[in-house]
Amino acid sequence: MPKIVSSSVVSSSDHATKPEDQPKSLHVYYCLCSEFALVIDADLRQLPRRRTDNAIIVSNVRRTYKLTAEAGECVLLKRRDGYEKQFRYHCPRCQLVIAYEMNEHRKLGPYTYVLDGALTENQGHAPANAVIDVQPISSATNTA
């Protein structure tokens, strides 16, 4: 009778590992049209914000991220202290502006700014700060 040799390997995810050995979790964000837009190693709610427009500041040096947006136009904005040049990124599906940089050479500057309310964690659901409540205009009725 032939000899049968077998071996098996048991793998388990409950091995004791130190927190510093565990990989950092990635956070996924979508455009308001449900298109995948950003994956990053930090929660956007925990990142600092700009005072001028409340945009989320993403460090191009300290953060690992992938922004799947298309480079858009350069816009010159008037600010309180002068003018600001923004090189914008927009959603490839709906063309919504979702981020911008101050440097013409994309991702070579110190920061990328994500616009407040432009991205959501829940695909298909707009965040609360993306929609502004607008009071309906009451139409004037003629009572003649």
TrEMBL record:
InterPro entries: STEEP-like, STEEP1_dom. Residues 1-21 are annotated as: Disordered. Residues 21-128 form the STEEP1 domain. Pfam families: STEEP1. Residues 1-13 have a biased composition (Low complexity). GO terms for biological process: endoplasmic reticulum membrane organization; endoplasmic reticulum to Golgi vesicle-mediated transport. One of its GO terms (cellular component) is cytoplasm. It comes from the Eukaryota. Transmembrane segments: none annotated. Belongs to the STEEP1 family. This is STEEP1 domain-containing protein.
